[in-house]
Write a structure and sequence with these properties.
Blueprint (H helix, E strand, L loop, with lengths): L4 H11 L14 H18 L2 E8 L3 E4 L7 E3 L14 E4 L4 E10 L2 E4 L9 E5 L8 E3 L6 E8 L9 E2 L1 E4 L2 E4 L10 E8 L12 H23 L5 H24 L13
Antiparallel strand pairs: 1-13, 2-7, 3-6, 4-5, 4-7, 5-6, 8-12, 9-10, 9-13, 11-12
């Protein structure tokens, strides 16, 4: 069973000989140990990330405005707008201008942050920041390290994997065709591991590395803080132990590193 952050913290204290005792002040506060735990958690994730498949949908609506209303896009012909369009980009293909959708009013009426649409002018609706239907906004994906690849079309056998290009919060599918609005897209993501009182994505091997790293970093931090107060003859002893712990952690961190393998998938 995976350890919670409280259990990890307890083991770290034991290895630092800092077990909580009644009427005895601990050298390390919980938030101080947690700071080191979270720092190591990120370092582990960069070597052996938490792998997650995120599901997004393509945005690729098009049409023409049927009325002129300030700061609105009106299209009664297609009547294709949904509440999920809020936050997306409207591109005026006639004037080459853009605006952001700020409110959904009906299937034929969106409110925009900029007055760009007039009757008869054509438009596209893409993910915010995107410039085509191949673009997906990943700004809402938390703790993201990188997007490894995409799957489109989804749920094929074998899977139809695709290469991606990432710029800021935009992932662009490296494909020849343009997805239809609402098409499902799977993104295979590398994320920072989670460790809370209720959730852990670490296996036992990674827990061991996490404990080693937190102990090493806490020991080095304590040594630097307390150096002036340590009896001179003891400095070498403390320094040697802390340095050894750091070397153990670095070796363990290197041992979990997976070699980067680049794969190239068809565009068609």
């Amino acid at each position: 069973m995976a350890k919670t952050i409280k259990a990890i913290r307890t083991v770290v204290r034991q290895m630092l000989r800092d077990e909580l005792q009644e009427s005895v002040d601990a050298e390390f506060a919980d938030d101080e140990i947690d700071l080191h735990i979270n720092e190591v958690l990120v370092e582990i994730s960069e070597k052996r990330p938490y792998e997650v498949r995120e599901t997004l949908t393509a945005s690729n609506k098009s049409g023409a405005a049927t009325a002129t209303t300030a700061n609105h896009l009106i299209d009664t012909t297609n009547a294709q707008f949904v509440a999920g369009d809020v936050g997306k980009t409207v591109y005026n293909n006639t004037d080459k201008t853009t605006a952001k959708v700020t409110a959904y009013n009906s299937t034929s009426d969106l409110t925009l942050d900029t007055d760009i649409m007039a009757s008869g002018e054509s438009y596209y609706i893409y993910h915010y920041g995107g410039t085509s239907g191949k673009d997906l906004n990943i700004g809402s994906i938390t703790d993201l390290i990188e997007v490894e690849k995409a799957e489109y079309l989804t749920r094929q056998d074998p899977p139809d994997f695709r290469n991606v290009k990432v710029f800021g919060d935009i992932v662009t599918l490296d494909i020849d065709s343009t997805p239809t609005d609402g098409d499902e897209v799977f993104l295979y993501c590398h994320k920072v591991h989670q460790l809370t009182e209720g959730i852990s994505t670490l296996n036992p091997d990674l827990e061991k590395v996490l404990i080693e790293g937190a102990v090493a970093k806490a020991a080095m931090a304590w040594l630097n803080k307390m150096r002036a107060q340590i009896v001179p003859n003891s400095i070498r002893l403390y320094q040697s132990w802390a340095t050894t712990q750091l070397m153990l952690y670095q070796n363990s961190l290197n041992s979990i590193t997976r070699p980067k393998v680049w794969e190239f998938y068809p565009r068609g």
